[in-house]
Structure formats: C-alpha cells, structure tokens
Amino acid sequence: MPDVQDRVMHLGLPGLEFEPSAKRFYPDGRSTAQLLGVTDPDGKGVSGLEQGLDDRLREDAAGAPVRLSVDMRVQYILAAEAEASRQMFHAKKAGGIVMDVRTGEIIAMVSLPDFDPNFRKITSEDSDHNIMAADRYELGSVFKVLTFAMAMEDHTTRPDEVFAIGQGYRIGKYTIHEAEHMPATLTARDVLAHSSNIGTAQIAMRSGPIRQAQFLGSLGLLGLLHSELPEYARPLYPAHWGVIETATIGFGHGIAVEPLAYVSAAASVINGGRRILPTFLKTDADRRGAQVIKPETSAQMRELLRYVVTNGTGRKADIAGYDVGGKTGSAEKPGPHGYQSHVLVTSFFAAFPIDEPRYVVFVLLDEPHGTKETGGLALAGLTAAPLAGRVISRIAPLLGVPQRPVAVARENT
User: Fold this and answer.
1) Among 142, 178, 184, 321, which residue's CB has the most CB atoms within a 10 Å radius?
2) What is the pLDDT of residues 228-246, one digit of tens each?
C-alpha cells in the first residue's frame, strides 16, 4: 500500500527495494463471495463469475468492462434478511435469488454461510460453496406450481373441481400422507393453496409419467442449466418413472434440482409461459424464448398463486400494495435410512406484482427449527414465506415497482 511504502522509505534503510505486484480486492466482501468467486495468485478465475467470465475478462481487458446484472442494494437486503432468518430459525444454510422474469437477469443471489474473499481463510463457520447453483434439493411443495401448470395446460382439472382427500391415499403398497391435517374434500384451487400432497398426487397422475417427464424437460429441469456461473448440479430423478414416481414428483419428492434451475422453470410459468434462462450479465432485452405453456395458462397460474398468498399457506408473504403470488415448500430431507421426519428444507417462490410479474424472489432455509413464536413448527409458511415477504417489502420500492393503493376500512360516524 502506498502509505506503508512511504513510511518504510522514510526509514532510509540502504538496499531496500519494492517489487511491484497486484492483488485482487473485493470491496463488497462477503455479500457477493460465492457469486463473484475468486482468482488464483496469477489472476485466473477459479470459482464463481471470476471463473465463468475469465476468458471474456481477458479478451476485454483493454476494452469495455463486463457489467453484471447484480443490483448491490438488492444483494445486501437479500443477504441481510436471509442471515437474520438463518439465525432466528437456527438453520444450517440459507439462500435466495431475485430474478427479472422477462430478461432473465439475476438481480441478486445469496448463499449462506459465506466467506470473505479478501482473506481467503475459510473457517469452520465459513463456506465457499454456492448452494443456489452447486447443490440440488428435493424442494417439496414449490414443485406443485409445475404440476398445476401442467394440469391447467392439459385441462386435466379445473380450479373448482372437488377432490377427496381423506387421511391417506394408497398407490399399490405405498400410502401418501399430508404434512398437516386436511379436510375431507378440497377444490383444486384449495389443494394448491393449502398444499395437499394427496390432492396434488391425484392431479399429477392424470397426466402420467411420460407427459410429466416431457413437461419438466421442456422447463429445463431434467438437464444441465447453462449460465455464466461454472457451478452447477446435475438433477436427480428416477430411472424408472412409474405411477408412484409421478405422484411423488408431483408434490416435489423423488426429484432433486438446483434452486437456480427451479427458479428459471417457475419464472417461465408466470411470465406469459415463455422459457427464460438466467443471466448474470446486464441486458435491457426481453430474452424470453419458446412458448412452453399457453399465455392463458400462465394467467390462470398467476391467479392461483395469488390465491395461495391471500387464502393459503403463503399468507405471511402478503405485502400490502404489491399483490404477491407464491407457493410454499416444506420437504423432508432424505437420509441414509429414508426421509428424516421433521428435518426440513423450507422454501418460498414469490412473484410480484402477480397480475403482470416483473420479478421473482426465491428463498430457502436448510434445516430450520421452530421457535416459540411459530409454536415449535418450522414449516415454510412460518419460516420461508415471511422471509420472502420482508425481502419484497424492501426491494420493491428500490426496483421501481409502484405500490398499489391499499383500501382502508373507515369507522362509521
């Protein structure tokens, strides 16, 4: 550093020389650690966007800089809220993504715990692993968004159709159960709103395994997701895709994907039904691609997701004036001897404003624990949904999303 060099020179020591050198400095420190990644001593990128954009950075070294899509205001807010929830619920890990559903721009991506790239010392409490791109999860009930999109597209059900729920649903030697108590019957709309596994399984099975695999494949969930990030996780899905697999995949078990891949798939459902791929590069272009579902199906899904937030498990993400739509996900984690009871991954997928979505927010908590305030429960409606709501309430004004007037009841005079 110049001031240190100056002080040493003033010592007047003979034979002292200074070797010129360069060191990469990360002014944003931990807040973009895994996303930006790091370089080796020779300046070559070895992780994150440093690696993914290394060739381009070298080519453009004498030209225009590479401009990223990340908005540091949104990045800070997402990181702060995710860390607060991680601490509150004593979760092992937490993460989140904010994405523009038209351009595919990733506005923010957070993975916790993180590390300080300026020191390169990973302690036992740090991690240089980006769980949003390099990990795969069975995400649970957020997958119901995709199952319902397929059903609405294929007209295999309608929102007001009534389904028998009961106490368990047998398929051969297997019985599907609910995470929470459900009434004897539910309309399809309420199957999604109250996140019924039994109702969703029945809906998924109407499409069958071949159609389900084709539909998820059209959304990019059965292959590798390509972006400027070098980190990725191959999806896991059954080699034998039969009836029971169709039922469980319908509610998000039996298939594991990286969160970024899920976000891009779900964004395609609500953005008018056109395939959108994520990018970390700034662009003003509408990058939506092929039509994967009809525009009217996309509109129908937006109505259903709004209903989940106003009348279902997503109530704690309902931010006045922004008409949020979304879906909760609470998935039991698989262990060495099957699924682990009460060991959860909770998540929430949100879009706003839901009638004409511009942004999606996805948040995830890995192994959260219930608190006194949640009655000891750690389900997504109590952990991930309020986290998404707080993020939206803070970033929406920064992103220029106008707040709708909120009707206030007046007392009679």
Assistant:
1) 142
2) 999 999 999 999 999 999 9
Q: Which helix (H) or strand (E) holds 364?
A: strand 359-366
Bridge-based pairing of strands 93-100 and 338-352 is unpaired
Q: Which residues have a catalytic role annotated?
A: 141
Q: Beta strands of 12-115 (E only): which ranges?
A: 93-100, 106-112
Give me 277's structure tokens.
Answer: 């791929």
336 upstream amide cis, omega within 30 of 0: no
pLDDT in tens, 315-337: 999 999 999 999 999 999 998 88
Positive or negative, the CA dihedral 250, 251, 255, 260 is positive
CA–CA dist 62, 72 (Å, integer) = 25
Give tens-digit pLDDT for 341-371.
889 999 999 999 999 999 999 999 999 999 9
User: Could you count the other beta carbons within 10 Å of the beta carbon of residue 107?
Assistant: 24
> Model-level pTM?
0.93
Q: For residues 280 and 49, what is the distance between their CA atoms, to the nearest angstrom?
A: 8
